[in-house]
Amino acid sequence: MSETKPESNAFELSYVTTKEHCFKQNPNRPKSTNRRFKTAKQLATDETRYLQTKKLNIDTPTHLSIAAPPSLRPRKHYCDITGLEGRYKSPASSLRYHNVEIYQEVIKHLTPGVDQEYLSLRGANVVLK
Amino acid sequence: MPTASLSDDLPPQNLHPLREYQAPELPEPYYDRYEPDIPIAIDFGSLSVRIGLTNSEQPSNVFPNLVSKHRERKTGYNLTLVGNDLFRESVHYPTLRSGAKSPFDGLLITNWDYVESILDYSLEHLSVTSENGCLNNPIIMSEPPAATFGYRKGMYEMMFEAYQAPKVVFGIDSLFSFYANSKKKDGVVVSIGNNLTHVIPVVKGKGILLNSKRIDWGCEQELQFLQKALALKYPYFPTRLNQSHTSNIIQDHAYVSPNYAEELATYLDLDNLEKKDVVIQVPVEAAAEKAKKTEEELTRQAERRKEQGKRLQEQAQKKRLETIAQKEKEFAYYSELQEAILGLSKTEAERRVIAEEFENVEDLHKYVDGLQKAIRKFYNGDEEEKEEEVDPAAAWPLADVSDSELNEEDIKEKRKQKLLKSNYDARMRIKEEKRRAEEEKIQYDKDQQEWRARDLEDWCTAKRFELAQNISLYRKRSKIMEAMKDRKSLAAQQRMKNIAELANEKATGNGAGKKRRRNAGPTATIDNDPTDTFGTNDADWNAYRDIDKASLEDEQERTNSEILRLEEELLEHDPNFHHEDTFAVQETFDWKNLVLHKFIHGPRQSLTVAMQTEGHDADELLNNPEVIRRNHQLHVNVERIRVPEIYFQPHIAGVDQAGITELIQNILERNSDKNFEVGGQLRAFIENIFLTGGGSLLPNFEERIRLDLRSLLPSGAPLHVYKAKDPQIDPWRGMQKWSFTDEAEQSYVTKQEYEEYGPEYIKEHGLGNVCLKDF
User: Fold this and answer.
1) Phi, psi for B641 (deg, rounded to 5)
2) What are the coiled-coil residue ranges (chain B) (predicted)?
């Protein structure tokens, strides 16, 4: 494939990034101490722990305190299948649906597990731990 | 038929190709005006990096914040490609594209090695040179509002320990964008970023982080949501959509609905859908070639089918012959029996016949007759056999003569003749009945004719009423039949109950009845219980019908034929009754009324369904190039507004947070002086509501916020909502502009200060975060 394409210069492009950089010559640079890979979740816990150790005023904005509060407006319901207005709720799967057609054609015949997939779109699925 | 003609009239829908991210043709440029001591502004966003020296008006490099590593097999050399380069090189190494990774996971940086690669790469492209091994430029760096400790620490380490920059300042990207765009010092900044959405009030040029709020939803989450929704909508879709596909779908087709509830209610109406449905075509190859092949195959297929039919016919013929042979054998045997019993006495004959498992002599005769007829029918073909006219008196003279006048021999003969005569009579009776029915029908037709001649309208209404009654009966019954299929349904349970009750009565009821009969005399039996009114009401008999499912089907069949008959009459004589009005047509699947069909297949009938109803078989469907093409199409309709709506109603995606408008409302109502006069804080806010961030590029975003806020504010309030000139680049422009101010000069943290105070330390300024270090 690469014969027909112009010559790959991936090596040069890569070299730009990986070569010795004249502006990055610090013999005293501390060895990367804490470069262990951490997931976003672990990092978030780290941040929470860090904030707990601080004696912060109640009005100090932190990563945690600026998260938006839950909505106080009445929630509108939407069909889990189509996204249209969802006036009805299936008692078996607690999926919301737009009309009887959606119920008859989709919800009644959902293979097990798919209902949870639909619910997971709005975070209402059952998560077993 | 109007259905077909309408869809034929409509032009085919516009197709949008599925787009992947395309990197610009030109290689990443190298900056030619590098000078030391000029600040370098870096907007390190999670989607893309914008970097440049502040002696330029524009960032010199803008590229996706992605790194891809690839091990070249031949040389064993590790390739590390960054940004657009990896897309350009993916023609040579396809894994580069699929292996591209961002240093971010959500809003947090998880891979600092990647960050370092990206910064190395971008500084090289700025043509940074250095004699002392250090980066001799001050750095202006973006960070999210309320950046985490880990983020700042990592960045500080990178800047001061790896590059040994002289000084660094951090600021909030959206506030820089506000700084670049806004002429006023007060306002509300709404930043729709790649992972997060923020609402930040700004007072006197200073972002008030205390009253800022963050929604954990951004472009990235949008993509994932759409991807999941489409996967559920088309579970058997042949190709997998990747992030860059969905990203382009959102970019090209999603828009914020100014009035969501209203637009949603009519979104799938045909005329709306015609305008709003977007068809996305995934490229398919080799469809045409396949179709050509079927041309030959079709003839072969037809031949094969013909042959198969022939074989089946032969088999059926063989079977028929076999059965007829069997019947002939039986006929021979039983007619011998008939002969034999003629000579016997009545009781003796009866005994013989019963031994042969017949109920009585009559039964035997009937059976033999039937056999004879079947055999005759087989040999004469299926023609109606003709009954030759006979004179009963002449043909069977002995039949009517009394026994006393006859001798033994004649009595035998008489029995035979009597039998034949009775058969003949029965046939005649049937004929007579047929004739009468025919006459009745003629009479009925005549009556109807007269009725129509007298008052056509009256006739029509009467017939239509009758038809409607039948149809409703049919519907009701089919509902019951449907319910019967489900073992747990009410109808099925009622039936089981009835059966159980009847069984119970049979078991105990009979015994009890007999006892009662003996004890209390005939008045109290079940049969003539005066209090029992069962049967006076016609519906009572339904109890028996409920038990027998088969009879329900029979009745349904009867009603159906009645409906057909009525419709035929109406079609013939009622000028206002057309083919479309018939029950059958009404009952057939009309995709235009089906929400689901329109949702999945858009404003055209699904070709697969259409071909199936026309009776094409599965093979034909599979090989039809048009069907294959259609199977590779996505219809994006409701999703176009559903996905952006999440910014306003995050609960749609399960995010338990208030939407953008509600957050702005909170700021306006709680955190301002509620002063609408000139010079009032609230007025300053609503006069300057500013949108920035890549997510705000969706059409109608300002419009929607304007409309939502308008409904909350008093009429005539000077509301002004506007968007950044270039929501993606403006944070960098703000940094560039800000770098020349005194405030910037005073806010730098030097390497020395960093070493003294640690990574928590920043100097607070109007566009930056709050310092959390306790002194």
Assistant:
1) -105, -20
2) 420-454
Query: How far A89 CA sits from the closest chain B CA (Å)?
Result: 15
Token pair recorded at residue B113: 């090695």
3-state SS class at B738 = helix
What was the pLDDT predicted at B387? 57
For residue B317, give both structure tokens: 């013929």
Cα distances from B549 to residues B436, B491, B543, in angstroms, run: 33, 11, 12
Banded pLDDT at A33 (limits 50, 70, 90): low
| Vertex B71: Cα angle to B70 and B74 (nearest 5) | 135
Q: Say what the pLDDT of residue A96 is.
A: 93
* Chain B residue whose CA is closest to A3: B92
For residue B91, the chain A residues in CB contact (below 8 A) are 1-2, 5
Cβ separation of A40 and B651 shorter than 8 Å?
Answer: no
Residue B682 is inside which H or E element, if any? helix B681-686
Structural domain boundaries of chain B?
Answer: 303-440, 456-573
| DSSP element (H, E) containing B187 | strand B187-192
Structure tokens that stand for B486 in this block: 């489900």
Dihedral (C-alpha) B429, B434, B437, B442: value to the nearest 10 degrees? Answer: -130
* pLDDT tier, A1 (very low <50, low <70, confident <90, very high otherwise): very low
Q: What is the pLDDT of residue B404?
A: 75
Which of A25, A42, A66 to mutate: most B Cβ within 10 Å? A66
pLDDT score, position B529: 61
* Res B386: pLDDT: 56
By C-alpha distance, which of B361, B422, B378, B374 is closest to B396?
B422
Q: Any chain A CB within 8 A of the CB of B486?
A: no
With CB atoms and an 8 Å threshold, state whether B89 touches A8: yes
Q: Give the pLDDT confidence of B222-264 residue by residue, as tens digits.
A: 999 999 999 999 998 888 888 889 999 999 999 999 999 999 9
From CA B151, how far away is CA B438, in angstroms rounded? 96
- The residue type found at B42 is I
What does the pLDDT read at residue B637? 92
User: Do residue A73 and residue B85 have CB atoms under 8 angstroms apart?
Assistant: no
CA distance B143 to B158: 14
Residue numbers of B between 644 and 683 with CB closer than 8 Å to A? 649-659, 662-663
Q: Which residues of chain B have pLDDT under 50?
A: 1-7, 287, 290, 511-525
DSSP B101: B
Chains A, B: CB pairs < 8 Å: 224
Chain A residue closest to B640 (CA)? A83
Q: Give mean pLDDT, residues A10-32.
A: 83
Contacts of B244 (CB under 8 A, 6+ apart): B19, B20, B21
The b/e string for B550-582 (b: 16+ C-beta within 10 A; e otherwise) is: eebeeebeebbebbeebbebbeeebeebeeeeb
| Closest partner CB to A10 (pick from B81, B129, B225) | B81
pLDDT of residue B339: 81
Beta strands B749-750; B721-723: pairing state? unpaired
**Chain B 562-601, residues with CB within 8 Å of chain A CB atoms:** 594-596, 599
Distance from CA of A87 to the nearest CA of B (A): 12
Q: What is the ipTM of this complex?
A: 0.91
